Every structure is written in C-alpha cells, then in structure tokens.
Amino acid sequence: MTMPVDLETDAARLRAVMAEDLAARGYLDDPGWRAAVEAVPRHRFVPGFYLPTDERDGRGLTRWQPVTADLDHGRWLAAAYSDTTLITQFDGDEPDWKHPAARYGGAPTSSSTLPSLVLRMWADAEVREGHTVLEIGTGTGYSTALACERLGSAGVTSIEVDARRLERAASALHDCGHTPTLAVADGQYGYWPEAPFDRIVAACSFRAVPPALVAQTRPGGKILLTLSGWLYGYARVLLTVAGDGTAEGRLLGGTVSFMPARAHAAPAFGNPAHWAAGPPGKARVARHGPERITAATEESFHLRFLVQSTVPDTQLATVGEVVHLVDVVSGSTATLTPGGGVGGGWQVREGGPVRLWECVERVLDAYDAAGRPGPETFTLCVHEDGQHLRHPQLPCLPLPSP
C-alpha cells in the first residue's frame, strides 16, 4: 500500500505522541511493547469508522457519523491515534467505506479496541517471547499486528468469525509485512490445527469458558477472556490450565467489557409490555432496588455479573421508570415500579416458576453480609463437573453450561 509521504510522517509523529501518553499512564513498561506501538501504523487498519454525535432520531437512537480520510482527513488521522475504541461495524453489516453513510442506533459487532486495553490484555495474559498465541477476534487486525511486532508472526494465530472483516484485516497485516496464521473460525471452538498454545487471549466475551480453549492450551498455559451474559454483566478472568485438563484463576479487577461472541449474544425477547401483561403475582416491597445492579459504578458492574450467574437466562429492560426482568427460558418475569415502599422504594411483582427478583435479592443480601467483596477475591474453577465461581464467604455460583 502506497501512502503519501506527508501522511506517513504525520502518522509517525502521532504514534510517538500516543506511545508517550500510554507510557506515562503505565501501559508501556515493557520496551518491546513500546517499540511495537511506535512501529505499527494503526491508521492502515481503520480506513473508516463511526463516531457518535449528539444527534438523536425520533426514537432516541444515536446518530453515528462515518469518518474516513476522504471525508475529514485530519479528524480521521487524529482519531486513529487516540486511545479510543473505533466502531467499524454494526449488526454484522460491513460498510462500504468508499461511500459511507450515517446510521442511527444498532449493535456494534466489530471495532478497533482502544490501544491501552489491547496492551493491558497482552500484559495481563503474561505473554512472553517464544510463546505461541491464539487471538480470538481479529477485528481490524491492529492488536494482531502489535503481537506480530512483539513476538514475530510465526508465533501468532488469529481467528475471526466474520469472513469479510478478516479479509480486510489480512490485507492490512500483509501490507505491513506481518504474516500470522489467520482463519475464519468461531472462537468458542478455538483453532485445533495450530494447537496447543501457550496463551489464548479473547477480544470477545463468552457466557462460560469454551471447553475447546482449555483443551487447546498447554499445561501451565494461560487463557485470558471476558465472561458476560444477558444482563450485560462482565468479568475478566486469567485461567491457568493444569495437566489434568482443569483450569482455575482469579477474576481481574476493573470495568472492561467486550462484544459477545455472536453465538453467545442475548436473544431478542420481544415487547416488555407483553411480558408485563402476564400473571402479575402479588406485589411486595422490594428489599433492594434495581439501581444496585444498574448504577454506573464499579460495584454495580461487579454485582451485575454475580447476579447474572444466578439468573443466567434473564434480561432487563427499562420502560419509562418501570424495570422489567424477563427469563426467556422459563417464562418468569419480575416488574419493579418505583414509589412502592417506605420513603419511596420499589414495588415488585413476580410471575412464573422462578421468582427472579427474589433470586437477585438473595445474592445481594449474601454479598452485603460478606462485606461486599471485590472481583479479585473470587476464583473461577473449570472442572469436569462444570464451571463454578467460588468465594470463601459466599455460596458457589455456577456458570451456564457452555
């Protein structure tokens, strides 16, 4: 790929500035990763992306504006070298970046993850020279290029479920001189032809640890992945695989979230009003309000994952001030209405075989009684009898069957 000299000069300058900023914030303590950031031209991996605007349509959906070099060269290049996640695809539809159009709403399905998080992932996975690595979720190919620059292409395998996305990433990687093993494959099954691996790092999230990933990791090797679910609770875990095929590891702190693997995405559940119109059950005053799991705090982020492990098939929707929980497997519902208790509070009505909010409240009660322990105090155990989240002061929480 031939680029104008001024573009490459400007890009090199912006890369140096980005590397300096990342280093000052503690993300580039390893000289090898700093050299990789300074060498890999991120702009070649993002010919176009979407940035949100303040505009909304009649349904309240965000207007996403396409950004390319042809539309606004300065904005495109500056964003490419910012520590920002750049959305490159919605709803699985690959844009035509030669003739891009604005769009409203939609679910992001591919992106170029912010560089600081990419570096944090490689560091958290304890990737070292000589390791063979499987990356799940090639995306734009930028993180793959950093790994190739740091480890050499021969040790890097990257898989992507979207063939069109992989084709674009492969072109950019090869144009930059990198030749990792690339394949169109579903991340939940890993990639047997190149196994076993010393490290597996996933740039998407799963409801539970895919057994194939454990089987494809060498004894003593590590798997870094994000667990998620239909309540949009997230937890990152670094697992160490034992010689008997089991794996264990502590949850990691922070509020990192990733798009779900497409096979693990939450199903559409329909109209909340239809669910609320079912057998309402008898109203009662809720011991805990929904803000315990919906507030924009680190504790709520963590709690949402713990609750999700107890009611894994449940989704949440807010209509006006009313909060609905619906379980698409059992048909159970819970509707929380504000103003039902002393001093305000919430009223809850539950229907179906599972008392959803009662399950949530039991988790919250136990969590409070245990002193509100943080994620780093939990251990995920992957054994023949299933996958369980363990804590010395709390009941064992199973993950959904993978």
TrEMBL record:
Gene Ontology MF terms: methyltransferase activity
Keyword Nucleus found: no
Domain of life, source organism: Bacteria
CDD domains: AdoMet_MTases
UniProt keyword terms in alphabetical order: Cytoplasm, Methyltransferase, S-adenosyl-L-methionine, Transferase
EC number(s) from the headed UniProt entry: 2.1.1.77
PANTHER family (UniProt xref): PROTEIN-L-ISOASPARTATE O-METHYLTRANSFERASE, PROTEIN-L-ISOASPARTATE(D-ASPARTATE) O-METHYLTRANSFERASE
Entry similarity comment: Belongs to the methyltransferase superfamily. L-isoaspartyl/D-aspartyl protein methyltransferase family.
Identification of the protein by name: Protein-L-isoaspartate O-methyltransferase
Native species: Streptomyces viridosporus T7A
